[in-house]
Write a structure and sequence with these properties.
Maf protein, 5-stranded mixed β-sheet, 6 helices, globular, homodimer
């Protein structure tokens, strides 16, 4: 069974719904999570907030926090996961922010990514540095997010 | 030059910004349009509205229209393209809705898709029937949307 299938079955069995926010991955996580026919029963939607501007506009993320971090930090990831869960009224919210390259913020490695999962009781944030070309980084980051989501689902 | 590169250059030269709404393609169009480094200057964001519920919640699409069409029609595509352009304050809005399969609304072919492009003066809607597996339909539909966007940009 593919990872997408396992996630789908797990959510379905537990009667849980999901929403995502993506930045660097640009929609690829959402694409993965909707691969399975019938995903609309568990996957409610995603916001791809590609510019700082849209992060601010859609989620009212303070502009100074965004400028300081260029939208890529543990805090931003946690904030977005929590917000999308509430906005789309789902059980679980996931967010992915990062620098896909070829450039990143000064002093931070290209491929640095922060992932957050939020439910009613908890927010879980983790980070990773993914290597490869821009496209590889984006695809690998989305797959990592799906993998972390699955690990999280198994604990429920 | 790749199609994504051509679109990026064209938007950049004309100083235009873009936002998308996707249903059946699940984020793949957005992924394509953010392949190029620096895309955040032209691509402001995307809403992946995978469920009828999220179409209604985020865009206030009348529930009876959604139920009648299952969210897949010329009218829905036009409405979404216009709304996302206004929501994200961009020059251009694009939407893609469709039945990626393996099932579709009764009497409608799997792979049926409606694409709309909206700017300040016009809304342009077109439709196509894309064949192949669910994943092929989704990827081909997203590529078709990008192709139509490029043809549209050339007319500006």
């Amino acid at each position: 069974m593919t990872l997408e299938n396992k996630i789908f079955k797990n959510l379905k069995n537990k009667n849980l719904t999901l929403a995502t926010v993506e930045s660097a991955t640009g929609g690829y996580l959402s694409y993965l999570l909707t691969k399975i026919p019938g995903s609309s029963t568990i996957f409610k939607g995603s916001f791809v907030v590609y510019s700082l501007d849209s992060k601010n506009k859609l989620f009212k993320l303070p502009k100074n926090l965004l400028q300081e971090t260029q939208g890529v930090s543990k805090e931003v990831a946690a904030y977005l996961a929590e917000k999308i869960r509430k906005k789309l009224k789902t059980n679980i919210g996931i967010s992915v922010v990062g620098f896909a390259g070829p450039t990143a913020k000064k002093g931070i490695k290209v491929g640095t990514t922060f992932l957050a999962i939020s439910d009613k009781e908890r927010i879980f944030v983790t980070s990773a540095v993914i290597d490869g070309s821009r496209d590889k980084v984006r695809k690998k980051t989305a797959k990592l997010a799906a993998e972390i989501l699955y690990q999280y689902l198994k604990t429920l």
